[in-house]
Design brief:
flat
Length: 319
Amino acid sequence: MTTDLIQDGRAASPGPAAAGGARPRTRAWRRRREYLLFAAFAAPNFLFLLVFAYWPVIYNAYLSLTDWDMVSSSWHLIGLDNYTSLFADPDFRGSLWTTVLFVVGIVAGGLVLGLGTALLLNQRLRGRDAVRTLAFAPYVLSGAAVGTLWLFVFDPNYGLIRPLLAPIGLAAPAMMTDSKWALSGLVLVYLWKNTGFVAVVYLAGLQGLPRDVFEAAALDGAGAWTRLRRIILPLLSPVTFFLLVTCTISTFQAFDVIAVMTNGGPGTSTSILSWFIYDQGFRTFDAGRASAGAMIMFVVLLLITGFQARFLQRKVHYQ
């Protein structure tokens, strides 16, 4: 009887094949549960991106093919007429060239000034924490406040620029009313506003660099310029790449200071692409041309960012 019970127990117990079949089902259920959990967390974010990021681009692309005046309740499709009229417009072509000068001046100047400021603030100087705060403060100010401040600074009769130039016998130029100076003045204002942000990011990168590399370079007799060119700049290449992309995008979208200081003038001397789009949409009420200009700026930014990621990232050293 004992032998029969043992044989019956063996027969009743699950075999290796049955246990092995249960494990894949358990793993599959766990994997499915993880996917469902991921979808539950990611779906709200994806929905917000779809509604507030992707859909406006799609709708703007559609409006660029219409002749809507932003007042009437109906419009009709006109194809690529808005794009052809834009490229035939000398004001639009001029705004493209002005945008190139504006972006290159601010991005290149900001990187150079920001790196120099970061190298200075990285030294052990008395009161450097207060200087860091003062350097970053303009970046958090509103564009309206910055524009109003610099309008006073640039005033040729009562501004702060007049007593600075008077001792050397120079008259203060009409920075914001002279087409020869207006764009340079805007670039100067944006450099003053944005350099603190670039400096703080570079400073964070400098403080994360390995100290032993600099100690070895000092033992080898490397000077300050050699350390900057051979060690600091290569090690800071990820930071430079990040700043290059973000500063380029933000500069293309510049608007607030221009609205306060020049309104795109004198003439069209400070009408960059973002201001041209605003002018077409909310002054002449031509939503089709404004949307076409916005799509062109979107494509230009996409190409610039792709070029930076494709070619410039090759020179980035992450280790």
